[in-house]
Amino acid sequence: MKFKTHMMLTLAAVAVTAVPAEAQMRRNIRIVGSSTVYPFTKAVSEKFAAANRNVPAPIVESTGTGAGAKLFCAGVGAQHPDILNASRRMKASEFKSCQAAGVTQITEIQIGLDGLALAQAKGGALSNVTLKDIYMAIAATPFGKPNKAKTWKEVNPSLPAVPIRVYGPPSTSGTRSSVEELLMEVGCNTNPSMAALKKSNEAQYKKVCMGVREDGPYINAGENDNLIVQKLASDPNAQGLFGYSYLEENLSKLEGVSINGVAPTYPNISGFKYPGARAMYIYVKNAHLNAIPGIRQFVAEYVKEGTYGPKGYLMSLGLVASPDATRSHVARVATSMTPMTGATLK
Known about the structure:
This protein is of the alpha/beta class.
């Protein structure tokens, strides 16, 4: 069903269903999703609003990637968001959910790179950890055994005897998915027996390698990364996991912790030397392109060289520019709004 037809049906049903007025006649672009991508999209929204006075300013909500994907994929129509911010690539299961709900045409735009940074207060307890250290510290059942480690020294004798206290994202966050896939799973795979487990019982493998402990040392800090910054600034023995942009913005009071000897810096992330380097995206609902004013112009603003390139204004917020070839490809996709197929999603 086309978007305009859907809107007419929604309006006709207003006497029967309690549809909010703003959802019936919405003209604002509505964007949901990642707290990591939020500051970048917010900045683009402000530039877009200043240049398009005839269009209402976009509404940008920080819901977390997973929760945002559920909202985005729920259907076509003015009561559903137009754009999803994502600090990881859309999952195959989310794409299928979109398709099942009639969201069949989605354009994927890679907006740049970010580093999943491990950070602490300046002069904090840790200077360098390995991926295996991180895994052994926050996994619920490292290598299949209940995690009883209370200090970093219990994880690795070369580390200090300070309590493990890591603030990180909840399960609905794209950053949490990155914690599990970029850090924990790689650390778990340092044990050769895990490869055999993956082949014999993939569900158990995921539980062992990516299940986060819930007994205290890992602290779910919600979707507000600024809250983690505040916690770290007041506790020199605590660490936090969040997007690099929040570390860069707070270097006066925080410092990055090296992982496998590599510090979370712009050059290390752009070259994918830092283990937590990851791509970030926005996803656009093509069925809304002609119904909600300004979506094409908003996307065009996002992919301008002066926005997300190496000298763009988003760099000052901590965005790491994608390689030249990737940006050229993204610019073409953003102009044509070519829908993704979902064939390469996991």
